[in-house]
Amino acid sequence: MEVFMKYYNEAGHFPSNWGEKEIGYQGTSDSCPGSYFDGIQVKESFSPVVYTHENIQVEPDIQVRCFSYEDAGILVPRHWHNSLEILYIEAGDMDLLVNDLSIRLEKGDFAIINSRDIHATSSSEHSRIDVLQIPYQFLKKHIPDFDRIRFMNGSCGEARSDEALVYCLKEIQEIYIRKPYCYQLHFTSLLYELLFLCVNCFRLPAGEGGGSLNDEERARLITVMDYVNAHYQESISLRDAAAQVALNPEYFCRFFKKNMGMTFLEFVNQVRFSHICEDILRTDTSITELLVRHGFTNYKLFRRMFYEKYGCTPSAKRKETSGK
């Protein structure tokens, strides 16, 4: 606790100007050339989509989700959740897309993803990422005006604040992994300190953040993403998706492409593709059966997408990963 507490001033508060600096890691999709954020045409050879999560079983009395994952390259398509999510890069690097902001994270960097923000991630080979997800109910209970608060996605521009946040994140992961007697006491105290730091040093001025989407547009996209994730194994028509948000198909096409950076069909294919790739690397199920299971009917298109991403055929990648 000493490292964190030293950032208080003599009056027991953070300096009044903390949290007023400009956000770091800003950029556009051009800052991640060739990444999967640009749509289906992926140029970089990211490694297979295989998840090896560690310590993901959260004890009920800590009220948050705390875990790490270490892998050869993970692609997670655009998604959202109500939780506040904080990432810390222990090793490797990650491309993070939050709303319309592209962020490149390297070893030692962190990112704060606000509740209900639409985001996607792609980590490189041998990356290790620590993740802390704080549920909306917990945040609302302890931060009454949480619905009106947004946090910076990265550095606040003040080194002491950044260091304090990283210290809390690393201590939270360490105490959760070791689980000493009554670890919940220390874990909870660190969690409260982390939130206090976020509120006082990383809070954006009212009305800032959130990208170019307004609340209605965000709600529509969230509805569509939820619909696709629930039905991607089935036949999904553009008309069905448009009906979910009460838009005519023609307007829906333009709306989706403008705000997601890809067509609706490309998004559906990306979701299906990520599930198929994961199963290719962790099961022995035939490629054809996996395509059918996950609703991908165009095998030629799938092979082309797979080759563009991994530089080889699905069978070759499965053999390479299994070591056989």
UniProtKB/TrEMBL annotation:
GO terms for molecular function: DNA-binding transcription factor activity; sequence-specific DNA binding. The keyword Protein biosynthesis does not apply. It comes from the Bacteria. Residues 222-320 form the HTH araC/xylS-type domain. Keywords: DNA-binding, Transcription, Transcription regulation. Pfam families: AraC_binding, HTH_18. This is AraC family transcriptional regulator. It comes from Eisenbergiella massiliensis.
